[in-house]
Amino acid sequence: VGITDERKQKYDFSEPYIASKAVLIVRSDDDSIKTFADLKGKKSAQSLTSNFGKLATASGAELVGTDGFDQSIQLVLTRRADATINDSLSFLDFKKQKPDAPVKIVAEQADADHSGIIFRKGDAELKAALDKAIADIKADGTYQKISDV
């Protein structure tokens, strides 16, 4: 789950287990959108409650609600949306599965978003156990093996 200040007020998190940047994705043949600012007045396919949706709104986009990444990409591919903002790792995985899909990244957010395991606030023992488990799989190479899949 993405670690945000808003969520930190209600929940605790493990140490981050992944960092990824938000990327702006458009059709390969679309040269009208090159930056997040170019979303002004355009349609962006987004999960309405996501951090990516908030970024699209802040950039002036009209949101087209979706259930997630796959639906967002389909709306872009079928021209029912001009763009989508999503996680760079999700995009890379999608392109690994569908290398010929006619979509591209045109912009990347400067700061990475971090994800961690979310849990009930105040459980120091659980936090310590989760943090240790994450550190252990990083130390023994398991984390890298999973990342390479």
Q: Overview of this structure, please?
A:
The chain is α+β, with helices and mostly antiparallel strands and 149 residues long. Helix content is 38%, strand content 28%.
In brief:
This protein is α+β, with helices and mostly antiparallel strands and 149 residues long.
SSE blueprint and pairings:
Blueprint: H1 5-10, E1 11-13, E2 18-27, E3 43-46, H2 51-58, E4 62-65, H3 69-77, E5 83-87, H4 88-97, E6 103-115, E7 118-120, H5 124-139, H6 142-148
Parallel strand pairs: 3-4
Antiparallel strand pairs: 1-7, 2-5, 2-6
Annotated CATH topology of the largest domain = D-Maltodextrin-Binding Protein, domain 2
The strands making up the biggest β-sheet line up spatially as 5-2-6
Structure annotation, total helices: 6
Per CATH, the superfamily of the largest domain is: Periplasmic binding protein-like II
Helix content: 25-40%
Order of SSEs: HEEEHEHEHEEHH
Distance between the termini: 20 Å
* Cα-based radius of gyration, to the nearest Å: 17 Å
